[in-house]
Amino acid sequence: MSYDFDLFVIGGGSGGVRCARIAAGLGAKVAVAEARFWGGTCVNVGCVPKKLMVMAAEYGNTSADSAGFGWGIAATEHDWNALIDAKNKEISRLNGIYTRLLTGSNVAIFEAFARLTGPHTLDVGGKTVTAERIVIATGGKPSVPEFPGAEHCIISDDAFYLPHRPRRVALLGGGYIAVEFAGIFAGLGSEVDLIMRQPLPLRGFDEDLRTGLNEALIANGVNVHGGAAVVKVTAENGFKQVHLANGEMIETDLVFAALGRAPAVDGLGLETVGVTLNDKGAIAVGELGATNVPNIYAIGDVTDRLNLTPVAIAEGHSLAEALYGQGPRAWDLDRVATAVFSIPPLATVGLTEEQAAQNGPVDVYISRFTPMRHTLSGRARKTMMKLLVDQASQRVVGAHMIGEDAPEIIQGLSIAINTGATKGDFDRTVGIHPTAAEEFVTMRTRTRVAGMLAAE
User: Fold this and answer.
1) Hey, is 453 helix, strand or coil?
2) Catalytic residue list contains 433
3) 3-class secondary structure per residue, 304-326
4) Which of the residues 152, 225, 400, 433 is marked catalytic?
5) CATH code, residues 150-259
6) With the C-alpha atoms ordered 287, 293, 297, 303, is the resulting torsion angle positive or negative?
7) Is the pTM of this model over 0.85?
8) Beta carbons of 263 and 280 less than 8 angstroms apart
9) What is the pLDDT of residues 298-337, one digit of tens each?
10) Closest CA to 7 of 138, 133, 137, 136
11) Which of 51, 114, 242, 371 suits 255 as a labelling partner, its CA being 20 to 30 A distant?
12) Is 330 exposed, middle or buried (0-12, 13-18, 19+ CB in 10 A)?
């Protein structure tokens, strides 16, 4: 049978675009459909604009810190509209880059919603299109709260386009979106309440990182409400009221619900062709993103596995090479480094202490110190670094850091950990002085041993 395209990709985010470009470069006739914005969540309402806003928040801190170095830089009232305008221009530039990358690779572009109507057919903005293979790369979407008064809340997509910065913000949730925006709004001058069910933020991260971030949030002036459940949100006299299960009520100007994300599968017609979802509502996939339908694949956040932009890119690249090249390159997705752009940021690669301890005795090395900059600025900000070393093999199985430049430092360490570096390899490495990063190669005194019971 003859098809309009060899490969049709639904979703113009990072993973879908990479898959389309690589496949086209390998000789396939490829098309991509995107109904909302090119570049997906990361470029438009995710990591890129969010990091720009974190940078904006940090400039206020830098102005205040400069006095300790002899400068008299006084921070003025932040111009929210100027920031949003500059951010929008940068996002528009990136949108253009994505479309040019596709057209430059001879990929056909459809600016329309695409849904499956059969194993090889799609409705693309009202037009029927056929394809030998189909890749679903539609990503995720913010979860909408279900408690009474949810209509009074915004979600993360809305936060990037607010007409003005609210004087008071109540953030609901303890995940990376919540803690990042807590830092953004607090740094720009808003009064922030962070309300989360867990006693500490970032469930699933290493416990020392979670504790360090909680302390940093408080030091930044964020009102942290740990172990708090939201019962309802009301609106009265132009303000919002967040009602908690313990009877407390917090009045604010804006309620920002950052309660996780869900796979974006609505309206795709998956049921029409029998594509299976798992118990989390994500597309169930096997090796290289294969669904239960032989010619249909899914990559990225819509599969709800490791929801990171670089992972989606790796999956898209591997799939294209497997389908049209000499076979997929080997990506190591077992020890993927990740960062949270809180203030200060944190980053991690490998196992948490709890995970590592399940495999037997683990040597734990921890260093806490005041960064050199803040010995003069006087800001109450600490850096924490942590290494986890498997006792039996002496391999470094986890590295964690909270503090300035943590993502940049952990990116380098991830190479060492992914290639099996031992504690001896770290110890033999001469550090760069004076830097924070050198602390990772000068840790000599073990803080504690974890996992002894697991080994007995």
Assistant:
1) helix
2) yes
3) CCCCCHHHHHHHHHHHHHHHHCC
4) 433
5) 3.50.50.60
6) negative
7) yes
8) yes
9) 999 999 999 999 999 999 999 999 999 998 887 778 799 9
10) 133
11) 51
12) exposed
